[in-house]
Design goal:
Blueprint lengths: L1 H24 L7 H4 L5 H5 L7 H29 L42
Helix pairs in contact: 1-4
Length: 124
């Protein structure tokens, strides 16, 4: 399971980096300043784009791979969290210990101390 997780994670990172490079390399539709001011190329700004070229198709494939890897990582993470593996310290309840008497709570006391009458105070 760990090998699959590492493989999907590596594939996601690779597709993300490839998608970033492909997006940065592509030429935008409205990249020319003249197109926004109507210098004869305004039809290309809002018009039909024609057939998709290699870069846009590659970007779409990388985006699809990225989202599939994201869903796979979310599924793997969810199944690993619900699997009954080693418990965390926080999941375990603290042991409850009730002392038998008050003397057991005193450090160094070995036996319960019997109540003794109070000694009279010495006066000077």
């Amino acid at each position: 399971m760990q090998v699959l997780l590492n493989l999907v994670l590596a594939l996601q990172l690779l597709s993300a980096l490839t998608m970033i490079v492909l997006v940065l390399v592509q030429h935008g539709k409205g990249a020319d300043m003249g197109a926004s001011f109507g210098s004869g190329a305004s039809g290309s700004l809002f018009g039909a784009t024609g057939s998709a070229n290699f870069l846009s198709r590659s970007t779409a494939v990388c985006a699809t791979v990225f989202f599939v890897c994201t869903l796979a990582l979310a599924y793997i993470s969810n199944t690993r969290a619900t699997a009954p593996q080693a418990e965390s310290i926080l999941d375990r309840a603290a042991p409850v210990s009730v002392p038998a008497s008050g003397a057991a709570a005193i450090p160094g006391a070995t036996a319960p101390v019997a109540a003794q009458p109070a000694a009279p105070a010495a006066s000077n």
